[in-house]
């Protein structure tokens, strides 16, 4: 039971929204300004500032946002070796860069080196930046709205799409009516890219150094397309299909998801019954047992309750599918717990699986992904046709079909930059992708690289969402070489990972297998980075 409790703690750290960026420091104590004035905040060595940015860059007199910035300052500031800021974006539409630095900053700063400041920021309208967009009047109202699989997966129940469509039509109208400050028209990705250039210029620079993961890949690629001559170093990792993103068609994002599912079956069988609680006599048998569970909860949902866990409810078909997909984000941390949850579900206890499941949408997804992609005008019948058209892409394709359900009622659609996402940049991009990423497949990295001549794709031979999901000293060494001296990996470089998917219960799962070819320093940082990333993993599938 101790091992199970520790595993669940890790899962909750990985999947529960963190609010560190919004507590422990009074952001109201910092006035917004057109210059950067840094003050100590949180715990040393972090410093914070606020930077004003025009709400509308085409009409600067229309008001402004005050962007919350945080940094780990260079230890070489004031010397000839100081080289300026590296801006980091942790992903997630509406993801907090403040939170990202608080959780990941120590590891990231070691990777980029002491010559650089490591800077994060809360994008306009988000978290500690102001004004903050929110179309719910209270946390209770927000919590009452269902962004989960029952509301967004168009296959959650027979004939459910018409009610899902109507639900998001109503929410779209509510959001538009409550946006009295006009914030929603100005929180687009292209405006955030302009904000990043403003941050660079506030530091006295002219070119961007950037490291962005997941949604941060869209932000980084959009910046490179808008300001190709302003790129000094730019890494994107966990790369979306840019064309599909801006078309509100995410079907290409799940082309590798079933690879992760197959790996679960194969590696569970290899690990044996001691390490994998859902073990069976062959990978095929494990797959059959999972199918049997889907059928079981389809006909009779399973209660999910434990006095030691924060959530309770029941596990039905969409909840189970959602939970399995959620485990794919960080399989080196969660596959063992997923196996335990499936075994418990088979025995009538849905509590572990229920904890794994999480919402698929949010206010930020609606405002950023829906508001600034192509307008979705589908009614329920067209949404059903779309869902049917992509069902062969993946056994999880209905989950990403939910993005069109979410967006079908959105009503704020300003004329923003939507591409083409391509350009000849002043320095080549480093683009990173895993061999099996459940939501940003390697194909997205390769497709994007073709649009930016000279860019190089670094492949990490691992599972999970972004290279942060699994420790790879090889990948980290290439990242540092790129920031330090502009060295790109050789074409077709593949980095191994240093982790196991099903460690024995007595093992410390945070310790990787040692690779004598790598310095111990990279090994330790890689593991620390993976574990820290688990604490700021995306709030939902989008």
TrEMBL record:
Signal peptide: 1-21
Domain named AB hydrolase-1: residues: 85-253
Swiss-Prot/TrEMBL keywords: Hydrolase, Signal
Gene3D superfamilies: alpha/beta hydrolase
Ranges of residues in domain Peptidase S33 tripeptidyl aminopeptidase-like C-terminal: 400-495
GO molecular function per UniProt: hydrolase activity
Coiled coil stretches, renumbered: none
Domain of life: Eukaryota
Family matches, as PANTHER family: 2-SUCCINYL-6-HYDROXY-2,4-CYCLOHEXADIENE-1-CARBOXYLATE SYNTHASE (PTHR43248), AB HYDROLASE-1 DOMAIN-CONTAINING PROTEIN-RELATED (PTHR43248:SF25)
Family that this chain belongs to: Belongs to the peptidase S33 family.
Protein name: Uncharacterized protein
Top-level taxonomy: Eukaryota, Fungi, Dikarya, Basidiomycota, Agaricomycotina
């Amino acid at each position: 039971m101790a091992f199970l409790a520790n595993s669940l703690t890790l899962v909750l750290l990985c999947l529960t929204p963190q609010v560190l960026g919004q507590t422990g420091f009074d952001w109201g104590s910092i006035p917004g300004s057109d210059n950067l004035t840094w003050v100590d905040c949180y715990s040393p060595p972090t410093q914070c500032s606020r930077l004003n940015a025009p709400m509308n860059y085409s009409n600067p007199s229309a008001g402004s946002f005050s962007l919350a910035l945080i940094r780990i300052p260079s230890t070489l500031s004031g010397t000839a070796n100081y080289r300026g800021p590296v801006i980091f974006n942790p992903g997630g539409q509406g993801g907090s860069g403040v939170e990202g630095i608080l959780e990941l900053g120590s590891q990231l700063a070691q990777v980029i080196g002491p010559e650089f400041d490591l800077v994060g920021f809360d994008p306009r309208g988000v978290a500690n930046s102001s004004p903050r967009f929110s179309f719910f009047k209270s946390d209770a109202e927000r919590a009452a709205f269902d962004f989960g699989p029952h509301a967004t997966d168009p296959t959650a129940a027979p004939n459910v799409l018409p009610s899902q469509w109507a639900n998001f039509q109503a929410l779209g109208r509510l959001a538009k009516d409550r946006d009295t400050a006009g914030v929603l028209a100005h929180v687009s990705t292209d405006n955030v890219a302009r904000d990043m250039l403003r941050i660079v210029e506030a530091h006295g620079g002219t070119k961007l150094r950037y490291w962005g993961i997941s949604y941060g890949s869209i932000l980084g690629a959009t910046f490179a397309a808008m300001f190709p001559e302003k790129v000094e170093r730019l890494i994107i990792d966990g790369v979306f299909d840019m064309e599909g993103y801006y078309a509100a068609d995410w079907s290409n994002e799940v082309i590798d998801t079933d690879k992760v599912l197959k790996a679960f079956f194969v590696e569970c069988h290899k690990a044996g019954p001691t390490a994998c609680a859902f073990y069976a006599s062959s990978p095929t048998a494990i797959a059959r047992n999972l199918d049997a569970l889907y059928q079981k909860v389809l006909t009779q949902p399973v209660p999910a309750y434990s006095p030691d866990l924060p959530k309770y409810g029941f596990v039905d078909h969409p909840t189970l599918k959602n939970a399995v997909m959620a485990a794919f984000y960080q399989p080196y941390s969660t596959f063992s717990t997923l196996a335990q949850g499936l075994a418990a579900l088979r025995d009538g206890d849905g509590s572990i699986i229920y904890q794994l499941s999480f919402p698929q949408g949010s206010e930020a997804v609606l405002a950023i992904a829906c508001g600034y992609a192509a307008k979705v005008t589908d009614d329920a019948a067209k949404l059903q046709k779309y869902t049917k058209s992509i069902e062969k892409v993946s056994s999880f394709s209905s989950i990403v079909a939910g993005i069109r359900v979410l967006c079908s009622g959105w009503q704020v659609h300003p004329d923003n930059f939507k591409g083409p996402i391509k350009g000849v940049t002043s320095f080549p991009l480093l683009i990173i992708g895993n061999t099996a990423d459940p939501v940003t497949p390697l194909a997205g990295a390769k497709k994007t690289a073709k649009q930016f001549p000279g860019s190089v794709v670094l492949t990490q031979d691992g599972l999970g969402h972004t290279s942060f999901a699994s420790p790879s000293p090889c990948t980290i060494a290439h990242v540092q070489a790129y920031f330090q001296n502009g060295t790109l990996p050789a074409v077709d470089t593949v980095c191994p990972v240093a982790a196991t998917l099903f460690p024995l219960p007595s093992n410390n799962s945070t310790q990787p297998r040692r690779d004598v070819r790598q310095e111990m320093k990279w090994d330790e940082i890689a593991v620390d980075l993976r574990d820290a990333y688990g604490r700021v993993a995306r709030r939902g599938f989008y």
